[in-house]
Amino acid sequence: MKRLEYMTILRQKLVDGGLSNEEINDALEFYEELFLDGGYENEEKTAQNLGDPEKLAQQILAENGAVGFVRPQAKMEDVIDPANAQTTPPPRPDYDIAPDNRNLALIVIVLITSVVWAPVGFGLLTGAFAVAFGITAALFSIGCVGIGLVVSGGITLFQAPPVGLMLFGVGLFLIGLSVLVFVPFCKLVVGLFKKFFTWLINLFRKLFNKAGSGKAVSENG
Amino acid sequence: MSFPISAGLLDSMVLAIVEREDTYGYEITQTMRKAVDVSESTLYPVLKRLQKSQMLETYDKEFMGRNRRYYHVTAKGRAQLSDYKSEWLEHKQKVDSILLKETEKRVSEENNKEKEEVLPQEA
Predict the structure, then answer these.
(1) What is the structure's pLDDT at B1?
(2) Of B27-31, B42-46, B103-107, where does mean pLDDT reach its minimum?
């Protein structure tokens, strides 16, 4: 064990033991000096001579009459009662920085690769638009044809009644068909695009919120 | 070690080391370890105890950009040390008188033998 690690554990254990700051600093200065005077290259050996830092801390605590008073790491109530656990959140661990960095890196990657995926994405999007528009137009034209057939059927009815009747009927059929399909199809297409855009917006918002501040992460998560 | 070091002995040895020359923690522990098997964690309370009872006082001295705590024996410490010394001498002689008696006898016997061997030649 090196000096830094040893001293960190020793300090933590003394603090946990409820020793006064003065006593803690006094003891830490003494042992720090032993490490420093022992030489950088002998730190492992010095630590070995001193023994387990936890035991040393216990010994120091005992000498100061503070033995037995050990601050609990986590209260039982905190573990059992979720309400308590929420009101006193544990200190943010250091590794929380990592996800933020990862998100930032993700954004950078997304931006760099946008050269590739942006045209593809736009192509697919406009394609979907075109298909939706085409089907809508087809339905509209079917409706138009239906109207045209009804009109011409009405006229032909007087010249050649059976043909006129048939044209009239087919026209009505087409109008009915287009209206029947057009309304739900429009609803479907509009719904799909709405969903797609809200998903896209949420995606970006999440991405930038996470990278922006740690607070947003805890709020989201 | 068969013979445990008592608190009084530790105190007196540390006082003796510091009395020779003001010195710092590491050197005290190293000097002590040359003679007896004690760990640094044993010596820290000893030094604290001697400070509390005003036999030792400390001062900081800069060494390579950091502070080194030097220990100095007070007048009270000196008086205590001389008491310790005479006490130890008495203790040591008493122990020796029993523990080392046989050895002393044998040594004197050997000396006597040598003398006897020498004497007849002269005679």
Answers:
(1) 61
(2) B103-107
Instruction: Please give, rounded to a whole number of angstroms, the shortest distance from the CA of A12 to a CA of chain B.
Output: 17
A53 to chain B: closest CA residue: B41
- Is residue A51 a contact partner of residue B39, using CB atoms and an 8 Å limit? yes
Chain A residues in contact with B68 (beta carbon < 8 A): 33, 37
B24: which chain A residues are within 8 Å (Cβ-Cβ)?
A: 33, 37
Question: Bridge partners of B24?
Answer: B70
Q: Nearest residue of A to residue B46 by CA position?
A: A63
pLDDT digits (tens, 9 = 90+) for B54-94: 999 999 998 888 889 999 999 999 999 999 999 999 999 99
ipTM over 0.85: no
- What is the spatial distance between Cα B24 and Cα B19, in angstroms, rounded to a whole number? 12
Query: Which domains does chain B show, CATH number per domain?
Result: 7-122 (1.10.10.10)
Q: Where are the domains of chain A?
A: 3-87, 98-220
Pairwise CA distance, residues A128 & A193, whole Å: 9
Higher pLDDT pick, A102 / A178: A178
